[in-house]
Specification:
mainly alpha, 67% helix, single chain
Amino acid sequence: MSRFLSFLLRRHPIASGLLVLAVAVLVVFAWQFAAQAIYFNDPTHQNPALELWMSPRYVGRSWDLPPPVVFDIMRMDHDAPPHDGPRTLTEVLSRTGLTLEELQARVESAKTALEARRR
């Protein structure tokens, strides 16, 4: 096996390097996917009470809400680049004038409506 690897590296160094880089990127993305899948499938991380440190993306994933629903709930612009959007619920609340309790009620209502449509 080591002869084959040394042959590849000697004969095709660029292709071998690109292959190693591609495998490394694949491992990183697979690790992130698995970590998020495990984290958000844990019942303690599903439908939590909203807190000011949470991001809109975190709320959407933990409440199993699609991004367009989260955008509507939080009165965010659908077409804005992701880096221009609010990074925490503190920013969402300051932009919209909602309270955390009102936002919690909107999230719960959207979740209930989405579950009713899925049935």
